[in-house]
Structure formats: C-alpha cells, structure tokens
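Hey all, quick one. A colleague (J.T.) asked me to put the iron/sulfur cluster job into the tracker so the inputs and the structure tokens live in one place instead of scattered across chat threads. No bug as far as I know, just bookkeeping. Sequence used:
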Amino acid sequence: MGDIRNNRLPPEEYARNFADAHPPLTRAQALVESDRCYFCYDAPCVTACPTAIDIPSFIRKIATGDPKGAAKDILTQNIMGSVCARVCPTEVLCEGSCVRTAQEERPVKIGALQRYATDWLFDAGVQLFKSGPASGKRVAVVGGGPAGLSCAHRLAMLGHAVTVYEARAKVGGLNEYGVAAYKVAGDIAQREVEYLLAVGNIQVRTGQALGRDVALAQLRRDYDAVFLGAGLGAVNGLGIEEGAVSGVFDAIGYIETLRQARDLAALPVGRNVVVIGGGMTAIDIACQTKRLGADDVTIVYRRGEEHMSASEKEQDWAQTNGIRIKHWSRPQRLLTEKSAVTAVEFEYTRLDADGKLVGTGERYTLAADMVFKAIGQTLVADPFIEGGRQVLLTREGRVGVDEQRRTSLPGIWAGGDCVAGGQDLTVAAVEDGKQAALSIDAWLRTAKAKGASHG
Ligand SMILES: Cc1cc2nc3c(=O)[nH]c(=O)nc-3n(C[C@H](O)[C@H](O)[C@H](O)COP(=O)(O)OP(=O)(O)OC[C@H]3O[C@@H](n4cnc5c(N)ncnc54)[C@H](O)[C@@H]3O)c2cc1C
Ligand code: SF4
C-alpha cells in the first residue's frame, strides 16, 4: 500500500528547503558584477529580453550608485521586473546572449542585478509611477495574472480607469499560485502586486470569474475595451484509464496548495513519487515533493532530453535536487491496491521513420504511491463568447491575436498564456499586457473616439 503522509522532515528542514534558491547580491557584489558589463551599443541582451529592458543602462546606474534610476529603467519596460528577475530563464534570454558568454563562458549576472535594483526600490518604499490624467475611458481586464496586471498598470498610467476581474481570492496569477516556492521566497509576489496597484485608478474585483459571475457581453456593454488574460485553466489527462484511483494528482493543483500553505509540514507527500511530463511544471513538482521529504522522485518523459520544454538549466536543477529523469517512456497503466496507486507501468518509445512517436512494446514499472500529471494545460474558452460569437481560437485551442494583441472581436484584446504563439513565460505575459494596453490606448484615443471598430 502507498505511504502518503505529512511531517516527513524535522520542522527546521522545511524552512531550509524552501528558502530563496538564489540569495540576493550584496551591494559590494552588485558593484563588482555591474563592472563586468561592457555597456554594449546595440546590446544583444536587450534584443533577447521580451520586454526590451535597457539592460546596459540599468547596469550602468547600479555601477554609479543609482539603484533607483536602475529600477526605473527596469520597471518602465517591465512592471513585474522584480519577480521576472527571479523566475526568468535568463540563461536562454538576456544572459544567454551576453557577449561575455562567448569570451569567458560566464555572462554578466543580469537577473541578479535586476533583482538587486528592484529589491532596493521596494525596500526603500519609493513609488515611481502614478496614474495619468483621466481619459474618461473604462477598460475591463479579465484575469489578475502577469498579463492582466501589466495591462492594467500601463492603462492606468495612460489615464484609463481599469477594473480587474479575478476568479481567485488573490491577484498575481501563477506568480502567486504556480511558480516554485523557492524561486519567489517570502512575500515578493504580493509585494510586487501591491507596488503595481499603488499606481492608482485600478479597481480589483476578486472572486469574480468571467463566464460565472460576469459575461463578456456585459463587459462589452459596460466598458470601452476588454483585455482577456485568463491564462490556461484546465490540465491535460494522462491519456490512459485513470478511474477513481487515489494517489494520482494534478501537479498544478498540488503546487497551488503548496504555495498557499502556512505550514509546509502539514502537506502530505508520498515516499515514491512519479511525475509524468517534461516541462517546468514537471521539474517544479518533482523538486518540491523531494524537498517535502519524498524518498524517491522520478520524472518520466515520453521523448528525449532535447525535446523537453524545461530548459537545460531546469533539468540540471532537478538532478541537483536528486531527481531521476527517465526519457522515451509513456504511461500504459496504473497498478493499484485497494483503489490506491502502487505503481505505474510504462512502455518505452521511439521515433519511427516518419518522426512519429511510437511504442517499442517493451514495458517496465515504477513503484509509486503518488503520481503527478504535469503534461500541459489547456485554455477554458467557454467564457469567451459574446452574443453567440466566440473569440477566434487557433488550431491549438488558444486565442488568436495579431501583433497588437487584438482578437477577432472588435474591442477585445488578449495576452499571456491564453493566446497562441506565446512563450508561456511570465515575462512574455507581461509584454503582451503592455503591448495590448498601448494598442487599446491608441484605439480609445482615435478610432473608438470616432465610433470605429478595430476589427
Ligand atoms: C508550475 C508552473 C511554474 C512556472 N514557472 C515559471 C518560471 O519559473 N518562470 C517563468 O517565466 N514562467 C513560469 N511559468 C509560466 C508563467 O507562470 C506563465 O507564463 C504566466 O503566469 C502567464 O501569465 P498569465 O497572466 O497569462 O496567466 P496566469 O498567471 O495563469 O494568470 C491568469 C489569471 O486569470 C485568472 N482567471 C482564469 N480564468 C478566469 C476567469 N474566467 N475570470 C476571471 N479570472 C480568471 C486566474 O485565476 C489567474 O489569476 C510557470 C507556470 C507553471 C504552471
Ligand atoms: S551583452 Fe552583456 S556585456 Fe553587453 S550590455 Fe548586455 S550584459 Fe552588458
């Protein structure tokens, strides 16, 4: 029988295991690190940043003892620059293209410097932004995640009155409910939200879900424009018979509970944990269950290492945490005893001559008292209907938008994870929100004012 229980570790170990994964730079360290920057003209790190932060400019300000100016450079482009400094895969974005990487294999620590400047600002309690002169226009934002909040902040700065409709009890989206606890240790996600909302002219309505408490048609009637930033609300199944088996969990749901837990010792965790998936969620649930005291944690992915959507650094991080990653295997069957999972049977896979994933017929089992599904999320598009017309979805089932983040319905914009073609990263969601706000603003001041539609 399975062994799922709480209090697996001595009390002091929980705090240690969930402390800041990458402690902040001291002032002296920040000065030394900023001195390593060449302040490149046409800097490749800026091009690689989805929000186009002027990285050499903010690093120069740190080097000259002006952290406030540095924070302003960062937050002007990316209002969630503090959480992004902690969660961005910098190794494939800004730091991945830093010219110093080519020369000496170690890029400037852009993420850590960004954190240094934004932490300084929050600690100093300096508010850099205030809402603009009232435009008389009202915009509804659906979803209080990075996309929605970024859009709301920029709209408020441009003088529009914003109302955020958020289904959950708190805003913040996956920064608050999803990202690994040790990446955003302490209350940084909520501190950032408070800073952002302090701009003024943003009303937040929590516990208000589009499709349940309010309809798109009503928002279209009551507001001049609507932004959809609802993220992805549903999780994919394993593709095998799951039945009423205990011990099988949706990774996102468990992480949400973990992120909101006051007492980590109270969280039940198995002895043998199997995680099925190959992305950031799989890595996060694996590392966090291990840190909650699981003995043996294995990630099983159906394709090869090079196909995993978790970056190389994330995969290394999992291995540093003692996680085993098995590739080229897909689940076939849950083995149970008294309706509780005891093992998972897998089949080895390979690519056939046409590049299609096929089973080899060879099978093996892994003992498991806890199995996590971490195989991607999908959009819940039901609420995106207005007057019988639905916002156009792409073949992959996400909202289709143009480069200004306009949807197929006039007056409705969208961004973040719910739209097609995105990177599914916090920083990309923030950029979507910002770009949508700029487009909404231009439309409200020109076409809409003249009674035209964007479509
Ligand atoms: C486990 C996990 C770990 C991750 N780790 C990282 C990481 O380390 N680094 C990184 O860059 N990215 C990470 N990501 C991805 C990142 O969190 C997302 O790309 C980002 O949060 C997307 O922002 P969003 O605003 O589009 O959606 P979300 O953050 O999902 O926010 C959507 C908001 O809309 C609300 N909502 C949903 N439906 C409705 C409705 N009908 N009405 C009203 N409100 C609604 C939700 O409650 C939520 O608050 C991770 C994702 C997951 C799942
Ligand atoms: S590429 Fe590297 S060295 Fe050049 S400006 Fe960016 S951080 Fe500095």
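Adding what we noticed when we looked at it: The CA atoms of residues 135 and 445 lie 9 Å apart. The first helix runs from residue 11 to 17.
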